[in-house]
Amino acid sequence: MKQRVITAIVALILFIPIVLMGGIWIDVLVCAFAAVGISEIFIMKKQIIVSWDFILALLATLTMAVPDSFFKFLPAFLNKYDIFYIFVMLMLVRTVLSKNKVTFDDAGVYTLAALYIGTGFHFMAAIRNAHLGLAILGYVFAVVWSTDIAAYMVGRKIGKHKLWPVISPNKTWEGSIGAVICAVIIAAIYVTLVPTGRNNALMIILAFFLSIVGQIGDLVESAYKRFYGVKDSGKMLPGHGGILDRFDSMLFVLPVVAFMGIL
After folding, report:
1. I need a labelling partner for 95 at 20 to 30 A (CA). Which of 77, 111, 126, 240 fits?
2. Boundary-marking domain end, from 80, 97, 129
3. Do 69 and 92 have their domain in common?
């Protein structure tokens, strides 16, 4: 527990100032997070990090993670998705060049992971750097973190009915419902105190759905960790696991916030 507390304090001391500064600082941070995230996928799959496969997957991930303004140098007929697709094609070519030592399944995992991780972290920076973005990102953190904390505490206190025991045996329906209720309450308090430039009632209703989406993101990560037979996605954060362990819910919630036009 002491290790977890120390790690959390140090991480917040480093993370919060960068979020507050925004701009290029958070752009670099999310790219670093994305790079670590895709490396954790390779480690869970017991694949070699120093390889052409990792380089291609990393470049595909960063293509999705970097700010859209990074691609302004491209001619009009190209965009970031075209670049991403080029890396996908190269990953498929690797199945041929490696004589199927790199399989089609491997290429599929790397493509999906690059899209999932890169897009999620991209929107962390995109939301922060938008108009009133700090307030919106703070709202997202408040909803996701209150969901995680309440799900654990309520589930531990009164949880009796397993939510999805095959995937995550410790999660309960009571914890999940309590988490949604807590997230809505925290969101209501947050938007009352912090101007977000959005309709307060809408933001409170949105918290209900984001809490559920965040819990789904948590279960998705639990599913692939169970598939690969690991407890944590990585060991970057002592006592807390890897980057994907800490941002599993965010990687689902942040794109939803952006897609719903909250930016």
Report:
1. 77
2. 129
3. yes
Domain that residue 19 falls in: 1-129
240 has a pLDDT exceeding 90: no
pLDDT of residue 1: 53
For residues 94 and 166, membership in a common domain is answered with no
122 and 189 belong to one structural domain: no
Which region among 26-40, 102-116, 224-238 has the lowest average model confidence (pLDDT)? 224-238
> Number of folded domains in the chain?
2
User: Mean per-residue pLDDT for 141-164?
Assistant: 94
Q: How far, in Å, CA of 253 to CA of 216, rounded?
A: 9
Q: What string of H, E and C letters represents the secondary structure of the chain?
A: CHHHHHHHHHHHHHHHHHHHHCHHHHHHHHHHHHHHHHHHHHHHCCCCCCCHHHHHHHHHHHHHHCCHHHHCCCCCCCCHHHHHHHHHHHHHHHHHHCCCCCCHHHHHHHHHHHHHHHHHHHHHHHHHCCCCHHHHHHHHHHHHHHHHHHHHHHHHHHCCCEEECCCEEEEEHHHHHHHHHHHHHHHHHHHHHCCCCCCHHHHHHHHHHHHHHHHHHHHHHHHHHHHHCCCCCCCCECCCECHHHHHHHHHHHHHHHHHCCCC
* Rounded Cα gap, residues 191 and 142, in angstroms: 10
